[in-house]
Design a protein that fits this description.
Length: 190
């Protein structure tokens, strides 16, 4: 359902001349803007920036599928840009004064290690896909968006910190699940 719906949006992007790599770059710019807005204490605008980051991140893959334009370099660019985007968003949150810097660092570590575990399993272990786990990027972003939004409306209740800690913990659990999955798959191949 998700891929079918998003591919229709990708067809529209192709019609107006947008390319997957352009959308990847736009997603990174939205993430940088979101991080700056968070850093400046503008939680609501940062949340809106994260929304645009998620939308353009979804559209780059949808456009690649819709136009049969997926390339190996495009995939690498997408993954690397996603990590940069996560860094800028979480850096902004950590420096915003609305959350403890340690919560943001923990969330960033978790998100990076989950992504790295998948990349290692797929590149070193030659697994076709290791996209398993407790929580994906979209769910983590949604949790951060909800946490930041609630922190805006109910300041001082540490809601954003709790959201970041859950994102970090869920990411670490996802990393462990990916290691277990990779171990089982590699053992099965022997």
């Amino acid at each position: 359902m998700y891929e079918e719906t998003s591919t229709h949006l990708g067809v529209y992007c192709r019609r107006i001349g947008l390319t997957p790599n352009f959308l990847t770059g736009l997603s990174l710019l939205c993430a940088i803007a979101s991080g700056i807005l968070f850093w400046r204490g503008q939680l609501l605008w940062g949340v809106i920036g994260m929304g645009f980051t998620s939308l353009t991140d979804m559209l780059d893959g949808a456009t690649a599928r819709a136009g049969n334009m997926g390339t190996t370099f495009g995939g690498i660019l997408d993954h690397v840009s996603d990590r940069y985007g996560e860094f800028f968003i979480l850096l902004g949150l950590g420096m915003s004064g609305h959350s403890h810097p340690g919560s943001a660092i923990f969330a960033l570590f978790g998100m990076l290690i989950a992504s790295y575990t998948r990349a290692a399993a797929e590149s070193i272990g030659h697994l076709p896909s290791c996209a398993v786990g407790f929580m994906g990027r979209l769910e983590k972003f949604t949790l951060i968006i909800v946490g930041a939004g609630l922190e805006f409306f109910y300041p001082g209740r540490y809601i954003l910190d709790y959201a970041l800690i859950v994102v970090g913990a869920a990411s670490v659990i996802t990393s462990v699940q990916r290691l277990v999955f990779a171990h089982k798959e590699l053992k099965r191949r022997q």
